Model the fold of this input.
Amino acid sequence: MDAVFRALADPTRRSLLDELFKEDGQTLSALEARLPMTRIGVMKHLRILETAGLVTTKRRGREKLHFLNAVPIRLVHDRWVSKYAEPWAATLTGLKTRLEKDPMEKVFEIYIKTTPERLWEAITDPELRSKYSFGVCVESDWKAGSSYEAVHPAAPAPISAGENLEVEPPRRLVQSFNALWSDDVKAEGTSRVTWEIEPIADSCRLTVTHDQLREGANDELYGGWPMILSGLKTLLNAAANTASPTATRSLKLSLLSAAMMNRIVARRNRSPRRPMFISSPFV
Done:
């Protein structure tokens, strides 16, 4: 977390993040053209932002694209903002923009101290999934070409569904994604979510790419990812170090948040209005 604060302390690096906020997925040349400094200077600042996890990159042919990664900001938020007073503050991490070229692509990255097998289990096991995804679990046989549904015990119908396009345990999962929790998100049509797990020493780097989104897509589709990945990290880190009082407290707070969400949804569903899910509860 110290690296995040050091990266954000420099105004030039904050300007780079602002540029990625305005338009995500930019090349080095595009970022260089927006700042009054040399190419080497921009590269140096981007390297610091990448080290802090605030920027992640992906190759597209010969180009290297840079994306704003909001997950470290979410982790800072989770450490100091009360989950009792503001349990659903995922919108505070909305550092992503809607003004992007068509189709839009969102990339999120996080490091978790766990094994690929354990991480894969947390993604595909319905009970584990519900612990960090607002009580929502995903039901599937996890075979390529099969379907999946995201369900909540208080919802009368699935809140999202799609197809498992690629299934390569424990490294890669590609899914089509159709949001169903409101008419607004249903109108967005089908997008795609890719989970990629890369082991690094005693940890894993998890990269989630949500792409094939239309220009200006409803941010409910992808706005919840920072909170979801933060909850996943809390869950697995606490499980790996159950003897730690701090880790145990974090896990209890995470599970309390899920329980509070269940009660909110249940109360909402008892009213004559339609069920309400907050900030992309699709996993």
Summary: The mean pLDDT is 82. The domain at 69-270 is CATH 3.30.530.20 (Alpha-D-Glucose-1,6-Bisphosphate; Chain A, domain 4). The beta strands are 55-60, 63-68, 104-112, 137-140, 147-151, 160-168, 172-179, 190-200, 203-213.
